[in-house]
Design a protein that fits this description.
By secondary structure, the chain is an all-alpha fold. 65% of the residues lie in helices and 3% in strands. It has a two-stranded antiparallel ribbon with strand order 1-2. β1 and β2 form a beta hairpin. α5 packs across α6 and α5 runs parallel beside α8. It is globular and about 50 Å long.
Length: 212
């Protein structure tokens, strides 16, 4: 390989590495489902068009963590998504539905001001299996391609972002007794949505490492 070829190869490697770090190398199905993901400035937490100052930080964190999750699941097959480490484990597909279910329930709790668990039957019928995981989820959440899960995540996230755009920083600071029945503001609750994805992203990556 001559110097020109070496330089070209190096540039291509650096470019690919940069794209991966920026969250650009995510599945095409995920890309189609997530038109609002600001991939060009995802590592720059700060002002986002249409959001207040602190809300922009929340949205920045949500976008960054979602890109990390999508990188973790890119190119997974139905078999991979259904894989169980043991008879008591949760699948990656199940955990993706769990992320969407958790976010949906936080929408109801914070946007509608309803107590946790005060959910309509139409929501519990749709989301309780994914929320609770376990045996019923192992039985029901399987046999689906990746876009089945990314579409659910995208639909819930788009609603979250539309609703957050209508709220301001004062709303973020509004408090109710929540975690351990202690005063908890909406900022903390939506940070938890992000932190929750981070927690399960670690589990997803571990399960991937065990798929043979």
């Amino acid at each position: 390989m001559n110097n020109t070829e070496k330089n070209s190869s190096r540039r291509n490697f650096i470019k690919a590495s940069g794209l991966l770090g920026a969250g650009l190398l995510i599945p095409q199905t995920g890309m189609a489902s997530l038109p609002s993901l600001p991939l060009n400035n995802i590592h720059e937490f700060g002002k986002r068009e249409g959001y207040t100052e602190q809300m922009s930080i929340v949205v920045s964190m949500m976008d960054w963590m979602r890109a990390a999750v999508l990188r973790s699941v890119q190119d997974l097959s139905v078999k991979d998504l259904d894989f169980l480490l043991d008879e008591e484990a949760n699948s990656i597909g199940g955990m993706l539905v769990h992320l969407a279910a958790t976010e949906r329930y936080y929408q109801i709790h914070t946007f509608e001001g309803r107590n946790w668990g005060d959910f309509d039957k139409k929501d519990t019928d749709l989301w309780d299996v994914g929320m609770n995981l376990g045996a019923k989820a192992r039985e029901e959440i399987k046999g689906n391609p990746l876009n089945y899960y990314t579409d659910k995540l995208a639909e819930v996230r788009d609603y979250s972002k539309a609703q957050l755009k209508e709220r301001d920083d004062a709303w973020l600071m509004e408090k109710t007794n929540f975690f351990a029945n202690q005063p908890t503001n909406n900022y903390c609750k939506w940070f938890h949505v992000v932190e929750h994805e981070s927690n399960h992203n670690g589990q997803i990556k571990y399960i991937k490492s065990r798929i043979s």
